[in-house]
Each structure stands twice: as structure tokens, then as C-alpha cells.
Amino acid sequence: MARGAFIAIVEDEADLADSYAEYLTALGYRVAIAPTGAAFDALVAEQGTPHLLVLDMNLPGEHGGGILSRIVPNKDYPILVASAIDGAMERVVALEVGADDYIVKPFELRELSARISGLLTRYGHAQRRLIRLETVLVDLTSQKLLRDGQGIESLGPGEIALIRAFTDHPAQVLDRETLLSLAPGEDDEVFDRAIDNRVSRLRRKLATDTIRTARGHGYVYEPFTPRGRGTA
Questions:
Q1: How far apart are CA 20 and CA 9, in angstroms?
Q2: CATH 3.40.1440.60 applies to domain 130-221
Q3: What are the pLDDT digits (tens) for 202-224?
Q4: Structure pTM?
Q5: Contact yes or no for 65/91 (Cβ under 8 A)
Q6: Top-level CATH class of 6-122?
Q7: Where do the structural domains in the chain lie, given as residue ranges?
Q8: What CA–CA distances, in Å, run from 85 to 77, 88, 99, 173?
Q9: Is residue 154 a contact partner of residue 170, using CB atoms and an 8 Å limit?
Q10: Residues of the chain whose pLDDT is less than 50?
């Protein structure tokens, strides 16, 4: 189960909404999709208030601007408008009404995650999760490697998804098919052997022996225990 913030996406283009959801879920967020304002109201009633809303403007039925206007007075979460309308006036109006940020379609999914991360941090909803390896910490929230509390290198979303797959299933052997389902690869990584290359690259980058090969079965993550802190 995802441990991150709850993100609601109001977007009527199903393929687009699904691409957002798949990407953000791989980063550890809990994501729900609504194609209309009415569906968003039902979503909130059923699943609770989101930590962040990604809102399209050109929606069937109630326009995104109308949704924005009626929820802003009582909201305590950030709203990121994701719109194909690239105009200064539209951007200004959305921000004046109460949107916290505005991103123009099409955009890179990595930019979407960066904007979301910044807004969640601003509102105090970011849930920092640190994983200790032999010589570094991995901050799954900021997607960075840390040494002495300082970020030394950024990690890509695919790498973060793979780390989450292992750390959410400690001491469990995960086969290639399972890893691909938990941490989908990029477009050029559609066959199962690609996971071997990804794991190999990740182990080198993290300089870790905690991710072991279970020959003939897959891989297993054995959490790092600092010397002298284990039990006898």
C-alpha cells in the first residue's frame, strides 16, 4: 500500500489521467481519478479530502474554474491546475481565484512530480521517508541520495520506484515479473531481462550489498543493520 500523500486528479482524458496516476503511484503516492467535478465531490465523500488536487480546466459539465471557485474558500490543501490553455490571463485568473500553481500541457511527468512535491512540502503534507544503506541514506520524498544530511545525487522516478519495491518487501524474494509490475520501466525497457540491468545499475549507484541476487528466482532486499546494533 502506498505510504505517500493522497492526490486527487480531476481530468476527463482517461489516457492522460492514467499516465499521471501510474507515474505518481510508482513514486509512492495514493492516487484517485475523477473525470468531472461531480465525480470529484463523490470521490471526496467516499475517500476523504486529498492532500493535493491536480485540476484540469476544460472539463465536461462544470468547468474547472467553477470547481476552483467553490472549493477554494474551504480548502486546506494545494491545487495544481494542469491546463492546455497557455495564456497569461488564464494563468493569472486561476492563481487569483486560489490555485497554488499552474502547469501547461503537455509537460514532462517529472516536472509534474516536482511541482507536486514542492506544494506538499509548502503545505506540510510531505511525508519524508529515509532508507539507510551502508554509506548513504535514500530520501524517498525528495528523491535524493544523502550523505551527512546533504543531498549528493538525485534519483530518477524509476529508481525510486525500484527502491520502494524492495524496501516495502524486506527479506522477500521478488521475481522479475513482480518487480516490473511494482516498478515499471521506461519505454525501452519492456522485457523482463531489463530488470537485471536496472537492479545492477541501482546497486552500483547506491554502493549497496543489501539487494542480493536470489539465483533462479529474482532479488531480495535485506535491510542494513549497523554493526553492533543487532541482537545477539
A1: 8
A2: no
A3: 999 998 999 999 998 999 998 86
A4: 0.60
A5: no
A6: alpha beta
A7: 6-122, 130-221
A8: 23, 9, 15, 47
A9: no
A10: 1-3, 188-189, 227-232
